[in-house]
Design brief:
The chain has 294 residues and is α+β, with helices and mostly antiparallel strands. Helices cover 30% and strands 12% of the residues. It has two domains: 16-158, no CATH class; 205-283, Orthogonal Bundle (DNA Binding (I), subunit A). It has eight helices and seven strands; from the N terminus they run ββαβαβαβαααββαα. The protein has a five-stranded antiparallel beta sheet with strand order 1-2-5-3-4, covered by helices on one side. A two-stranded antiparallel sheet has the order 6-7. It is elongated, with a radius of gyration of 29 Å. The chain starts with 15 loop residues before the first strand and ends in an 11-residue tail after the last helix.
Length: 294
């Protein structure tokens, strides 16, 4: 059994399972039940999870081929007698065409309630269901992989060309999936390009060249040799402004150090970056502690 998560990464009380079938898979959604005999209610998020599953499967281009009640009593009947048909919808149905998934969910509930309804009974709109989905990609996936995929948002954070926005979206996505299994995102087979006009600092190549030569192939922060050589045979180091240009630091040799990529990232993003900055200044005689300028 698996449990779905909403767009914020919060668990929904609604168990489900997956069975692989020809041309696709069956999504089996467990029924909702109230508290009985001292037992707590079960699958209280049934309705919310059903809408979520329908929306996610629609985003992946799936087709609902068949819909059946899968309760204990229903399973005693022949398969053709277990089928239900939501009023206003024709199967097979491309889920993307449904658009209003709450409306579709209510139609499924009414059809479920009418199934096996007894006299003077309103019927149960939250019975155990079996949704037979047609999806060609299922042939390359296991039942567990599909279940994990449906448990999580198909796509929450949208691609962006803005570096700052990308970093923020990456952090949100990591928080959403941290600590639980998440299906690999589909990504982009064809990556779009965009042309932008942005402000960039005009760097002095003489300063960069001098600092790299002064470092002689060793990181001025960790003192280790450059991690690899470029195609031209030169050691690969990056020139870091000890006081960032965005904070008013100058583009001079007194404010620039040659660093390996790892140290360069640490000097920008390590929580202790200020102490690392001061340590670098103390270890390289030419460097000066330029003030931060707003």
């Amino acid at each position: 059994m698996h449990t779905p998560y909403d767009e914020n990464g919060d668990e929904i009380d609604a168990k489900y399972s997956i069975e692989i079938v020809r041309d696709g898979f069956d999504l089996i959604i467990e029924s909702q039940g109230g508290s009985t005999g001292g037992r707590p209610p079960r699958n209280t998020g049934y309705a919310r999870a059903l809408v979520l599953h329908l929306r996610r499967m629609a985003e992946l281009g799936m087709i609902l081929d068949d819909l059946q009640v899968a309760s204990t009593e229903a399973m005693k009947r022949p398969e053709k007698e277990r089928k239900i048909r939501p009023d206003g919808y024709t199967l097979p149905l491309e889920l993307a065409a449904a658009s209003d998934f709450e409306k579709f969910r209510l139609a499924i509930g009414r059809a479920s309630a009418a199934f096996g309804r007894k006299k003077d009974s309103g019927g149960n709109p939250t019975k155990k269901l079996r949704l037979r989905m047609r999806w060609s990609d299922a042939s390359t996936m296991s039942a567990n992989s599909i279940a994990i995929m449906l448990a999580n948002s198909v796509s929450t954070e949208k691609p962006t060309a803005d570096r700052k926005e990308l970093a923020e979206r990456v952090e949100r996505a990591r928080k959403r999936i941290r600590g639980r299994k998440a299906a690999p995102p589909r990504g982009q087979d064809t990556v779009p390009r965009t042309s932008t006009i942005s402000d960039r600092y005009i760097r002095d190549p003489e300063v960069i060249a001098w600092v790299l030569e002064e470092a002689a192939g060793k990181c001025e922060h960790c003192r280790c040799p450059a991690p690899f050589k470029r195609v031209d045979g030169e050691p690969f180091l990056e020139v870091h402004h000890v006081r960032p240009l965005g904070e008013g630091g100058p583009d001079t040799t007194e404010n620039a150090a040659a660093c390996c990529p790892n140290c360069h990232r640490r000097l920008h993003f390590d929580p202790a970056k200020e102490s690392l900055r001061l340590k670098l200044i103390a270890s390289v005689k030419r460097l000066k502690d330029f003030p931060h300028k707003a």
